[in-house]
Specification:
The protein has about 120 residues and is an alpha+beta fold. It is about 15% helix and about 40% strand. It has one domain (about 20-120): HesB-like domain (Hypothetical Protein Aq_1857, Chain: A, Sandwich), CATH 2.60.300.12. The protein contains two helices and nine strands; from the N terminus they run βαββββαββββ. The strands form two sheets. A six-stranded mixed sheet has the order 4-5-2-3-9-8. A three-stranded mixed sheet has the order 1-6-7. A hairpin with a 4-residue loop joins strand 6 and strand 7. The radius of gyration is 19 Å and the shape is globular.
């Protein structure tokens, strides 16, 4: 007589990255790199200042620093320094091309409020 057995399958844990890059941001970064003739990454940092207490700083760079988190999507990359990471955890780096402006943006779930321009925020 055989005893029935059951199999328990455990799904692998999926680790959500601390910061993500949207498809639109990746596409724009690849277009900028192609126009410049070199691979560029978007550095996103948070500094004190702005109307709401903190402000986002964006820069295009060729090299990462030792303490950077590198976020990749579709062949493009963004960098976040270790100090800014706590304020950006859970955020999405996006690119919007609208009538009024074409710009990189951060969709930050940690921000309680932000100014009208969307560059500064408070926690």
């Amino acid at each position: 007589m055989t005893t029935p057995t059951s199999t328990l399958e455990i799904a692998p844990r999926t680790k959500t990255p601390p910061v993500t890059l949207s498809a639109a941001a990746a596409q724009r970064l690849k277009a900028i790199s192609a126009a410049e003739g070199k691979v560029l990454m978007l550095r996103v940092a948070v500094e004190g200042g702005g109307c709401s207490g903190f402000q986002y700083v964006f820069d295009l760079v060729e090299d990462a620093e030792d303490d950077d988190l590198k976020v990749e999507r579709d062949g493009a990359a963004a960098l976040v320094d270790s100090v800014s990471l706590d304020l950006l955890r859970g955020s999405e780096i996006d690119f919007a091309d609208e009538l009024a402006a074409a710009e990189f943006r951060v969709r930050n779930p940690n921000a309680r409020s932000s100014c009208g321009c969307g560059v500064s925020f408070s926690i």
